[in-house]
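Lab notebook, design round three. We kept the backbone fixed and only want residue identities now. Task for the bench partner: fill in a sequence for the structure below.
Input structure tokens:
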């Protein structure tokens, strides 16, 4: 206990002697905070059903879709992303097929259409290959 207090007091004395406060030393090493946002989600069940999720995210660093079904089966994922920043806009789209289940949830990145300076509107449409319960979770980081 005494050693810990002595080390803490010694470190504070060195910071003060050097003209640096503890707050300045801490802020110099801080990094910007990344927020994970739930853009949207969908759950449905039936035979050959689809789930669609769309939403907005400002200044995204990344966008991803997580999909799974019960029972485990082949899912077709069609995605699109429209981004706009000022007078510049762009869009991207694509499709992939995966085997996914409750114990094997699949997460894939949705490519950003135009950097991360503006606002993006990603959308994901997921379709079941057979009967079952389908789950889609669309999220982003900014």
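Proposed sequence:
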């Amino acid at each position: 206990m005494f050693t810990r207090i002595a080390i803490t007091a010694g470190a504070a004395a060195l910071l003060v002697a050097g003209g640096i406060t503890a707050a300045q030393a801490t802020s110099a090493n801080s990094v910007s905070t990344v927020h994970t946002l739930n853009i949207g989600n969908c759950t449905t069940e039936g035979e050959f059903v689809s789930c669609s999720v769309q939403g907005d995210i400002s200044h995204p660093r990344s966008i991803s879709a997580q999909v799974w079904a019960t029972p485990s089966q082949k899912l077709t994922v069609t995605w699109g992303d429209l981004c706009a920043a000022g007078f510049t806009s762009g869009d991207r789209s694509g499709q992939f097929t995966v085997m996914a289940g409750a114990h094997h949830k699949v997460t894939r990145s949705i490519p950003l259409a135009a950097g991360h300076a503006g606002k993006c509107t990603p959308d994901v449409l997921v379709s079941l290959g057979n009967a079952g319960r389908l789950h889609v979770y669309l999220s982003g980081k900014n």
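Keep this in mind before ordering anything: The two ends are 42 Å apart (CA to CA).
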